[in-house]
Write a structure and sequence with these properties.
Largest sheet: 13 strands, mixed
Distance between the termini: 30 Å
Low-confidence stretches: none
Order of helices and strands: EHEHEEEHEHEEHEEEEHHEEHEHEH
Structural class: alpha+beta
Number of helices: 10
Shape: globular
Mean pLDDT: 88
Helix content: 10-25%
Radius of gyration: 21 Å
Number of strands: 16
Strand content: 25-35%
Amino acid sequence: MEKISEDKVVIRDADKSDNEGLLSLAASSGMRGKFSFRVERKPDFFRLLQRKGNYLVKVAVMEGRIVGSVSVVEMDIFIGCKSSKAYYACDFRVHPDYRGSGLGVRLVQEIYHQSVSQGAELFFGVMLLGNREAASYLSGKLRAVPPIVAGSVFRVFQIIPSATEIKSSKYRIETVDDFRNELFSEEMKQYSFAHDYPNDIYKDTRIWCAAENGVVVAAIALAASEEFKQEVLVDVPGYLKPLMKLAEQVKWINSRMNLPRLNGNIRVLYIRSFYCRDEHQEALRILIAHARNQAYKQQYHFLTVGIDERSKYLRFFSSFPKFTLKSRLYFCNSGIAPDVFDALRQGVSFVDYSLV
């Protein structure tokens, strides 16, 4: 498409009155890859951003219609065990009719310069591998922005729920309302880049613990995000389409594998955080199996977690029946020390896929 002259489009800060326009734009856009998704945010586009932290949304408006958007959210992050600020870039969308027009470049450059002027030093984002349209912006289009460089690759495991109820003779498995969230923070500090969550982030989670002799040795926080966002399955690899059609028709299959339908919502139960003592990985394994059963009982399609390919937990989570997506973490550094930046890029990262 030909470049759109600057006098034909207005790029400005979004406000609540833009809700319907932003919802419409989200519904027209998707993430293309081996598995393709569209993320919708009904009924309130801004609610998810408010949950994450202070945010800024830029929109591109042409003839009264929102045709592009990008957001940046200020978040508390552990970088090398130290709590810091980092800025999550998300909601980068250009309406299909205006791709290749230069709008995407202008949106990113404007929100970058405004964020830096307000103190932002480190930006990050996550992109589904195979999303060629978004990847094209990483190869030199954004000349007014520092280089965007790759970090960790994540395997996003879509673990299949299970009808099998799990019991343990060694560990006591129970849900708790007064869990010490500092244990999750201790786990996060082991990563080079991980969320430093406030305690209230766990208010909408269900926390299950495994205890031995009264001492918690493993824990898992489960969360759904349907009230904040809805993921719609747009396309899957060709080999899965016959299986999905068969599952819709055969009761025996569907009772054991509740697969989503094309162009239908995907119901996902997310593993937001987990904690495990080194010598008690079996306790964590039991909790994951228990979570699979909880997902089954609540009719979720998948139990989902994203694990860095360099993580010690990769083989552990790989052992469950699953479908696997891949995504990559990207950084843009405008001010943190080069040695700190290199360390976080080369280390093992943790990303919360329930909100990112």
